């Protein structure tokens, strides 16, 4: 088999940059006699990999009786041998969890029924549901270890390094989903060790605060010892010290997840699994829940994400939409910034629901949008199904999932979309090594993206992290796409932000920003960087303690909400901008600053620009918006113009048509997306270095159509 | 001008059934020199009516200084005369509220700034926002009366009865929106009279409970007098007596709205306004908030609704969708059941937001969908705009709204959709007198549709009203559309349900059902009706008191939730049905009943069918679903087959293509809707009496396309 490696740009198969094209293919569902025929269909659609769960519920039907190979549905090894024969890599997902519409989410029934002490609990001690466990519960771990002790050695025999097909093994499945969706964080007392000196939670607090006096100072409490401290209920905090306490619990909870990941990882490695260990975040908004794990595991781990657009009628969209594209964009960018080739371990191949339908047009649009926005590896969930093993599924005899290859082997219209996409990837293989080209950077403060549990914006502590995160997506990113600006996300906690000083950095700020990020931004400006901050200038660190490094350097004061009925907002020469969010004023500002934005009826300054020693320039704008009007685009252009950076590589005449340019340095591909239900036309210009602009006139895009154009010559930034 | 009358089928203009086609046209924004030109454009698009606000903020810029005619923007009378000249009816909306992106929602600034005692308050006494008033506050009413005393006599001069153009005058605008969206119910102490013997709230309680002992019994309290009673906070109830107390406050609040409507109505009538008085519910889900008003006002009032599909990026959909069609469907049906010709006083003509875009394809689809599902009158909001009067608007110099005729008079592509729709209405004028043809009836318990404030389904009191309401929309209605069944809603509180005994009646039940409805259903069965109840058999009345009229008649017991991991659900011969909601069992059932539905692994009966004296048949199914799979359609067909009523007028091969047949008894029109982003094809058969079925093969529908076919002959039910 090809050796598989990766960097944050792409996978390398046998040393060559390649796109990982996988299809979810359950040996325990697809009839054995159909395996080869359907695997060949996957290869014909461009597949070079298959993924499968190895369901605990199926292989250990009775406790202690772990079975492989006794019936065709348990013939894992035959399946792996066949994949090897067909030169297909394999991603194995031995759990413990599978989900996959299996009973008990894929855990054995005997485990959930006979050992209820392992179940996750809410803060009141209530069980969420019968199959949501507390990951680190000792009894659960003991049972998992026994399962792993059997399944892992089997997988280990088939490692790529041993000329086998298994290139990746996945730890668990969509971790935290079974908590998040059914109750919130897990507060299982035994797992978390509340009240006991050596318990996980007291130890975490001790590590964080060293002594209980510091904790009391932070929490406004008067505990005598760490083991007296219990978490506060998520959502109930009114004061910042309570909010901090909830945030601490979240940090702790995420740390337990990293501990769980590390433990399973260790067991895998001990069993001889020496391939890439991976995991799939359940969706874009959960990617940052894995920061602790990513930090702990480093390159010995690879996080991907799952990018569905619709699984039932309650989803916000029936088809891919611009809002979906924003999710895809930030998700892929997050994975890239974590150091991984953006991999979508579950890219829709169908849906359990027949309605709303998964159409071939929507699917192809989904694939191309993910591609245009940075996807480097993918796995169709599912490529094909089959009969559910008896007693293992919670619904139906057939697991069809409306997949492109039906449960009975029939070829569906959606297969055509996979063929087209596969062909596109084959013909444009160089895109595997491509980067997204950017006019400017949008700063990412990870903490903002995971703050909704502890700081939902309604707690009177200034502009919240979750509001900033919303502003980033619905304001900045959406406006950038509508204005045909190309942006990369930039990890603010990484000093690398300072490496591209020629490009402006736009940061959606909240009342809080860590010392590290404040220092990075100061350093960025000191070295001559161009920075736009909106809507506030933080005065606190991420734990709500005073921290004015950035504010002091800028010589700017704190920010207060500016309440005004019917404000008239002007930014530069863009007047009367629709208020779709909130306005903020600064208590003080750099003495040399120029006012650039005003609430006109009161003459109040809501934005300034200032120059700093070393050539750095800073714009502060006290306006948080949700993109609604073309004037929001004009405003962004105007701000960038004040930094002399308003030019964009791409000019698109139609704000409803979104674009992306990817390049490997030699070749350039322009993607043009219509994620709306009506036909769109657009004229597009792309700047080139030393050559005339490319002009693409009257591009017509059907609903859900993504077109692409290879651009000759070098793009002008 | 044509005399205008109406019944619940349609409007009649000069005695002829006609569709009311109106366009919102603000004389205070459209430049006077453009009035005629643009009104002619409206007429050319099929318009026979215009609607305009008469903004208080504009006409009373300083308290006591009410101005008309001094500047072109205040030339209401010239405008009305021009409409008369052009033979256009007028809907006037003199407020007090306008919204319309005017400052203070159209109230004068001096009123909101100088009389803050009039503002609505939450239960803690906090003001929601600076322009949300407490409608019945005496100071507010005093100011409104002075405004009305000037504006109403002007309008009265232009009544249709006096050969003027004014056919309708609207009371206020989207009542309760300024409460609902910014805080909830109004608890202004002065308005509601908490604590005072003659206060509105104590008097309401006295009328409801007669003596305080009855109230104490109902609330589990020990008050000495009615004026000691204060409302409980919405959302905090855990017990049924607390829930009842919150529901009482809601009933009281809705009653104050009816009192307010009546008062404004009276002032209008006193001023000589003798035309139709109307109001627009802000959206479908608020229609039932007006039941008290509808009951109080009778035919001297006409309620319509507003049917937007997208006004900004936070909406659940960017374009019309099947989910939107469900809203349109039940909204139009509700208005019809109230006795009105379903009128959409704000049908999208554009959007304040430039993005997501309002496209001509989406708009035409929206119009045709509303038409197919019962709309009989409409008003494009807005048809055309213009410069905002100085100081009156909270945003921008121009109020363009992306309307079909731009603020500067330019004709936009969306005008084409209005032309096409206008032409369709002209060519098919008979549709004004058409009814929707139905295979069966879906019962409407109004209370369910307005229960989310007091009973959100998380309160352990059995299957809630709001869950039943969700089941009705996402389960029953959606399944019916996907299965190409045609249904009418049937008002369960009206004995008229018994008039169509040949058609089955399907009722989504909650734990509560009023005595009146229980009696009506019993009577329906006694007379030979065929009834399907799902998922529970109510044991309580709407106030949570025991009420087992229906249960006793059926000889069936109460319902308990049936909790089972991975249940296997079968209904008739449809097996293994996807569980997308909840399961319920009956404590007891009619002894002669046949089991028709089971949880198979446990053998538990979750549905039965029983025959009753007089030929009535009842099916109870303990399954609440959200439509996801074709088997949900099969299940519905199976239930109807057990009542020998599974035939449908229409059979559509594609469940993603939805249909509607309208008929005036002589002519029949089939509407075929594709509300998805991909092209759809369908084969459709329509049954005819004494003739071959009509077969429409290979109908191809573009995304957002609605096609229509006139069907010859009589349709077979």
UniProtKB/TrEMBL annotation, chains A, B:
Transmembrane segments: none annotated. SUPFAM superfamilies: (Trans)glycosidases. Gene3D superfamilies: Glycosidases. GO terms for biological process: carbohydrate metabolic process. GO terms for molecular function: hydrolase activity, hydrolyzing O-glycosyl compounds. Residues 12-176 form the Glycoside hydrolase 35 catalytic domain. Pfam families: GLMA_2nd, Glyco_hydro_35. Residues 470-575 form the GLMA-like second domain. Coiled coil: none annotated. Belongs to the glycosyl hydrolase 35 family. This is Uncharacterized protein. It comes from Paenibacillus lutimineralis.
